[in-house]
């Protein structure tokens, strides 16, 4: 491709800016990892910046052996996988009809969904509904309670709408039913957004905290966020510590904090490339059309 | 609702009728324990909330089921099902449980405001008629009438079970003795002397590195409250004519002091942004702070042993001592203390079997049972040292098997069992730990100064809960006043402390503060007998020493 | 091949034609409504049913009486809330911060996405994109710590640099204007990478042949972005903008709470932190519900206005 000098300059400029921004984004994590493997004294004294001082991995040992983290990790995976699949299904099934112009009552239904983004019943009424449906202490309370994010659903709907009308229409002339139209034409064309929303739901379920606190009673069903957040909030709260007056274990809270963040993020980083390929490269719409 | 009340009344009547027969059996519980194997199917079942701190190793089980819940259920006269409640979100979780009628029978929570709200919403069971099933607690009530005073609600009935805590300070100033020595200074006795010492700590290069990089003290996060307590500036105090009044004069003096600290650079200029005090602590550990005011001391061992070891890694010659509150123009005050009478436990009004609940509480607070739940099994987790106190055999093992189990006995009064007192954590054969213990003892002695007053109307856990319209007024005024005070400190010469107090008073008047004053005084008048105020706190903790 | 009325033929009566379309539309609608069943059930059960609980804004809610039997108090809680200027100031602060957030924060991910789109080396693009998505996973406590290291008066990186150039230290965190800038900036930094993903996905649906032909016509990068890229993602931008306007009454609690300090409270106290402080001493269910209801109404008005505006440009959401 030919590019003018101005264009080249422009592209170089963009590269520099982006690389600078990404450096600011990665440094905090380098710092956290360095903290987590440095010696307690060095961390207390604030000597650790981006390179570990006095290697010490005991906090990882503590994290995985003296806490329910491993069990909670498995639970997190179950919650995330189950929730993301159910949510994606429900979101696509809701967004698709709403994206069709010939749907009856399309606008009222869309508005009714949008309305719930602004008005919510609040913590206690929602809990009462869950309770009356006997969903408390099951993962269904998490999955059904957050089945559709209206935000995601509207984005999906808008993306479906952007699939060129001719493609859909020509398919319908070929005698395609709605289900086949969705499965064969619309979804394959929407892979980038499907991947994006899968990621959004996945991250949402992975980080799910308050719902688990409220709806899950059994410790053995808790997820990693609750375990990690729980530890961090207790560590950071003097008020609470003053009330509790526990003989707290000697554990450098900064280190534990760092481990918590690292352990929560790593799985997100591992999964990311698999979804990323869909929205970074995109699909060649033209090729399907032609 | 009516049905439940009715049945519980029935049970209560029945219980009363049987109480004479039962009394013998209950008192002789320790014998009953061994002989109850056959009765195990007839055990009543209750539910009990227990904090979940996310620190139970997966291999040990869960909050609901582990070696200690098994231990409890094997021996307790009732079958207990534990309901885990995440520590950090305990109130929220318990609220939804109460709202849906699924709250446990016994609710353990430290939050006074929360327990008060349960009382106001008629969710709590008055315990007076059931105390007979917990003779251990009855004994405690007789020994410490304060427990009854604090646990009694405005309707005159006893609702809360609580504990007596060890009489230690909530926080104490730590001063660099080596700096004092180097600069030929004395430990300051008054707030003016303190200012001079702090100035010297900043100006005269006490760490000898040739740079002016030291701070006198710190007041980020709650450390500012330590300064307030030197001046008795708490917001409320008891006036000479026995009314509850605002502490404007005290606050003015405190504000002037803080303003001086800020303007003369005796503290970190960024104290307002150091929101959890982490920066101040780091400065202290790096040997940059002369008088360290910890936001709160939750673990004396950490503050008097571990921290000092860390500090000595940087400054080997560092010497630290706790410092008594300097006398201020407003008088001599002691430090805040750990709440000596702390309420922890209430019983759900909807509990099906309050008798069983009380029996459970009785079981846990028996000294021999509490000892096991706090220290573990003798010979396995601890053995008696030469001084007669329990010594941990293997800290690693205890961290895995025991240390997370403290909440099962959270309503136990530790001073009741000399084997449990926290000073046993210090190993006096180790010089560092011996010094640490001496610091703790010295800090405790500060409480005994007979001239010193308590720096607050009461410990905040004993302050009354405001009704909702006053909560809003209070929050609004508090926000404005905080603005004003912050400006008063950092606002420079144009905005004096006097001006700040005048503005704060005006904001208080304008925002409806008078209504809060009225409420406080009505509360005081009506609850004089059960109010647990500063002098009561001092009286109790002094008697404990 | 397109079906136009002309192609169907003009001899049929309009009514019959209408009926034909109606039947066809009806038949098409059956599978669509079948698909909608789970969504509708979800919204009815988990979204609309709990909304009944909003009545507690007009009641003295307590556990003993429950939602339905608690005594009515009318507008009491709204009066408590709106009796003081503080509330008005807080609402104003909230709007102030969130409008600025929208003005500066909203375009940021779009710019990032478009910039990333210009990165031709796939490995670099992927790497940058992965990395800038990371801050989303940092809690605000940690970000507040970073802000303090950068902007504190003594020892803050920025002030150290200023000092080296002979400048006086600036109290960035304690002046309302610079605090707001830091507030907005930190929010942008934390979320722009994550939010950019949506736009990246939207960008991927643009036909690459458009760029090729534009390049052949000699259009520069900026012109291509203006004439091809932006129009390509316009529906997404407008949708997110309308939803963003609806959220103007919300400023995330954690962000403000962790960044604010007493000197900037005058500008930095917002609804969420205020409600938190009110609820600190005791849960105030009715009061917080009343505040929430008010927020919702303002949000509704804002969304409807934004949508009405968007409709003028034929981009309305509904």
Characterize the structure shown.
The complex is a heterotrimer of chains A (290), B (545) and C (318). Chain A has helices at residues 5-36, 40-44, 58-65, 69-99, 106-118, 123-132, 139-145, 150-162, 165-173, 178-189, 191-206, 210-215, 224-236, 238-244, 253-281, 285-289. Chain A is mostly helical and 290 residues long. Chain A is globular and about 70 Å long. A 4-stranded mixed beta sheet of chain B has the order 6-9-5-10, sandwiched between helices. In chain B, strands 3-11-4 form a 3-stranded antiparallel beta sheet. In chain B, helix 10 packs across helix 11 (248-263), helix 13 (300-314) crosses helix 17 and helix 18 (468-490) packs antiparallel against helix 19. The two termini of chain B are 48 Å apart. With 318 residues, chain C is mainly alpha-helical. Chain C folds into 2 domains: 16-74, no CATH class; 82-312, MetI-like fold. In chain C, helix 6 packs across helix 10 and helix 12 (221-246) runs antiparallel to helix 16 (285-312). The longest helix of chain C has 38 residues, at 14-51. Chains in contact: A-B, A-C, B-C. At the A-C interface, helix 1, helix 4, helix 5, helix 6 and helix 8 of A face helix 2, helix 6, helix 7, helix 8 and helix 10 of C.
What does the secondary structure layout of this molecule look like, with pairings?
The complex is a heterotrimer of chains A (290), B (545) and C (318).
Chain A: H1 5-36, H2 40-44, H3 58-65, H4 69-99, H5 106-118, H6 123-132, H7 139-145, H8 150-162, H9 165-173, H10 178-189, H11 191-206, H12 210-215, H13 224-236, H14 238-244, H15 253-281, H16 285-289
Helix pairs in contact in A: 1-15, 4-7, 4-8, 4-11, 4-13, 8-11, 9-10, 11-15, 13-15
Chain B: H1 2-27, H2 29-34, E1 45-52, H3 67-75, E2 79-86, H4 90-99, E3 106-108, H5 112-120, H6 135-143, H7 145-151, E4 160-164, E5 173-176, H8 177-182, H9 191-203, E6 215-217, H10 223-231, E7 236-238, E8 244-246, H11 248-263, H12 278-285, E9 289-292, H13 300-314, E10 320-323, E11 341-347, H14 354-364, H15 367-375, E12 382-384, E13 390-392, H16 395-401, H17 431-445, H18 468-490, H19 497-510, H20 513-526, H21 534-544
Parallel strand pairs in B: 1-2, 6-9
Antiparallel strand pairs in B: 3-11, 4-11, 5-9, 5-10, 7-8, 12-13
Chain C: H1 5-8, H2 14-51, H3 66-69, H4 76-82, H5 85-105, H6 107-118, H7 122-132, H8 140-151, H9 157-164, H10 176-203, H11 208-216, H12 221-246, H13 253-259, H14 265-268, H15 271-281, H16 285-312
Helix pairs in contact in C: 4-16, 5-10, 6-10, 7-10, 8-13, 10-12, 12-16
């Amino acid at each position: 491709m030919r590019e003018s000098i101005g264009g080249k300059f422009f592209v170089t400029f963009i590269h520099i800016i982006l690389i600078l921004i990404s450096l600011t984004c990665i440094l905090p994590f380098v710092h956290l990892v360095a903290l987590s493997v440095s010696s307690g004294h060095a961390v207390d004294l604030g000597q650790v910046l981006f390179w570990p001082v006095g290697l010490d991995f005991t906090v990882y040992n503590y994290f995985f052996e003296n806490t329910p983290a491993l069990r909670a990790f498995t639970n997190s995976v179950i919650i995330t996988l189950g929730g993301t699949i159910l949510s994606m299904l429900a979101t696509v099934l809701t967004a698709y009809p709403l994206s069709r112009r010939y749907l009856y009552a399309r606008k009222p239904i869309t508005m009714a969904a949008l309305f719930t983004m602004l008005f919510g019943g609040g913590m206690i009424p929602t809990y009462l509904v869950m309770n009356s449906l006997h969903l408390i202490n099951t993962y269904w309370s998490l999955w059904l309670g957050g089945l559709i994010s209206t935000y995601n659903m509207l984005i999906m709907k808008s993306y479906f709408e952007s699939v060129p009308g001719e493609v859909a229409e020509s398919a319908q002339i070929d005698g395609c039913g709605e289900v086949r139209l969705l499965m064969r034409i619309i979804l394959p064309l929407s892979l980038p957004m499907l991947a994006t929303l899968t990621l959004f739901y996945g991250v949402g379920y992975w980080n799910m905290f308050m719902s688990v606190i409220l709806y899950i009673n059994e410790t053995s069903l808790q997820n990693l966020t609750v375990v990690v957040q729980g530890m961090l909030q207790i560590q950071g709260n003097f008020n609470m510590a003053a009330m509790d007056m526990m003989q707290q274990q000697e554990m450098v809270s900064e280190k534990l904090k760092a481990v918590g963040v690292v352990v929560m993020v790593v799985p997100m980083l591992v999964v990311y490339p698999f979804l990323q390929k869909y929205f970074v490269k995109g699909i060649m719409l033209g090729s399907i059309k032609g | 609702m009516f049905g439940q009340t009715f049945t519980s009344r029935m049970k209560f009547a029945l219980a009363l009728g049987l109480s004479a027969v039962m009394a013998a059996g209950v008192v002789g519980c320790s014998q009953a324990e061994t002989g109850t194997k056959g009765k195990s199917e007839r055990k009543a079942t209750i539910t009990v909330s227990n904090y979940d701190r996310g620190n139970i190793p997966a291999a040990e089980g869960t909050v609901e089921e582990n070696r200690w819940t098994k231990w409890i259920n094997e021996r307790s006269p009732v079958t207990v099902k534990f309901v885990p409640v995440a520590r950090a979100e305990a109130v929220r979780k318990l609220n939804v449980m109460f709202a849906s009628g699924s709250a446990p029978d016994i609710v353990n929570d430290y939050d006074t405001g929360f327990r008060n709200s349960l009382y106001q919403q008629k969710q709590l069971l008055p315990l007076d008629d059931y105390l007979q099933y917990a003779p251990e607690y009855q004994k405690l009530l007789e020994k410490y009438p304060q427990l009854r005073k604090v646990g009694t609600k405005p309707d005159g009935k006893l609702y809360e079970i609580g504990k007596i805590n060890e009489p230690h300070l909530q926080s104490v100033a730590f001063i660099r003795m080596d700096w004092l020595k180097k600069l030929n200074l004395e430990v300051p006795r008054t707030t003016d002397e303190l200012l001079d010492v702090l100035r010297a700590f900043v100006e005269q290069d006490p760490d000898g590195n040739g740079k002016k990089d030291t701070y006198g003290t710190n007041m980020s996060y709650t450390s500012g409250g330590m300064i307030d307590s030197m001046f008795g500036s708490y917001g409320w105090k008891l006036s000479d004519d026995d009314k509850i009044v605002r502490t404007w004069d005290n606050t003015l003096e405190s504000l002037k002091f803080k303003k001086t600290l800020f303007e003369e650079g005796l503290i970190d200029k960024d104290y307002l942004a150091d929101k959890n005090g982490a920066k101040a602590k780091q400065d202290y550990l790096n040997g940059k702070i002369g008088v360290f005011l910890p936001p709160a001391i939750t673990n004396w061992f950490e503050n008097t042993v571990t921290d000092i070891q860390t500090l000595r890694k940087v400054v080997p010659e560092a010497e630290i001592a706790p410092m008594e509150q300097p006398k201020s123009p407003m008088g001599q005050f002691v430090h805040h203390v750990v709440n000596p009478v702390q309420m922890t436990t209430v019983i759900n009004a909807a509990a099906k079997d309050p008798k069983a609940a009380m029996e459970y509480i009785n079981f846990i607070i028996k000294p021999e049972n509490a000892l096991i739940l706090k220290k573990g099994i003798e010979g396995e987790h601890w053995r008696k040292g030469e001084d007669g106190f329990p010594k941990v055999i293997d800290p690693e093992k205890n961290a895995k098997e025991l240390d997370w189990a403290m909440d099962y006995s959270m309503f136990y009064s530790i001073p009741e069992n000399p084997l449990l007192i926290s000073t046993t954590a210090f190993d006096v054969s180790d010089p560092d730990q011996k010094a640490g213990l001496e610091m703790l003892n010295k800090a405790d002695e500060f409480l005994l100064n007979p001239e010193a007053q308590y720096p607050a109307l009461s410990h905040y856990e004993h302050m009354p809960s405001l009704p909702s319209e006053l909560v809003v007024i209070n929050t609004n005024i508090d926000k404005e006043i905080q603005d004003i005070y912050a400006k008063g400190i950092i606002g420079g010469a144009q905005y004096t402390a006097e001006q700040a107090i005048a503005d704060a008073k005006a904001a208080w008047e304008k925002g409806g503060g008078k209504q809060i004053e009225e409420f406080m005084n009505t509360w005081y008048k009506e609850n004089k007998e059960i109010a647990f105020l500063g002098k009561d706190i001092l009286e109790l903790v002094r008697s404990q020493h | 091949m397109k079906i136009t009325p002309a192609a169907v033929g003009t001899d049929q009566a309009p009514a019959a034609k209408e009926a034909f379309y109606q039947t066809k539309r009806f038949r098409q609608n059956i599978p669509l409504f079948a698909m909608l069943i789970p969504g509708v059930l979800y919204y009815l059960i988990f979204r609309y049913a709990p909304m009944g609980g909003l009545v507690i804004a007009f009641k003295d809610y307590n556990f003993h009486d429950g939602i339905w039997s608690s005594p009515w108090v009318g507008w009491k809680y709204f009066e408590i809330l709106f009796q003081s200027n503080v509330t008005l100031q807080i609402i104003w602060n909230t709007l102030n911060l969130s409008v600025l957030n929208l003005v500066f924060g909203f375009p940021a991910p779009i710019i990032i996405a478009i910039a990333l789109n210009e990165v031709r080396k796939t490995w670099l693009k992927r790497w940058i994109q992965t990395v800038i998505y990371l801050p989303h996973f940092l809690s605000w406590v940690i970000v507040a710590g970073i802000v303090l290291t950068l902007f504190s008066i003594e020892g803050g990186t920025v002030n150290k640099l200023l000092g080296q150039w002979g400048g006086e230290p600036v109290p960035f965190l304690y002046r309302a204007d610079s605090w707001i800038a830091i507030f907005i900036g930190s929010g942008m930094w934390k979320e722009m990478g994550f939010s950019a993903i949506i736009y990246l996905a939207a960008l991927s649906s643009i036909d690459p042949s458009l760029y090729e032909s534009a390049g052949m016509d000699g259009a520069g990068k900026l012109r291509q972005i203006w004439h091809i890229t932006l129009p390509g993602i316009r529906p997404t931008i407008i949708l997110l903008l309308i939803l963003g306007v609806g959220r103007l009454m919300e400023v995330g609690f954690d962000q403000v709470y962790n960044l604010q300090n007493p000197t900037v409270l005058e500008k930095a106290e917002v609804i969420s932190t205020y409600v938190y402080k009110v609820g600190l001493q005791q849960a105030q269910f009715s009061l917080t519900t009343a505040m929430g209801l008010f927020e919702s109404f303002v949000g509704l008005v804002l969304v409807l206005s934004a949508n009405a505006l968007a409709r003028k440009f034929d981009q309305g959401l509904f």
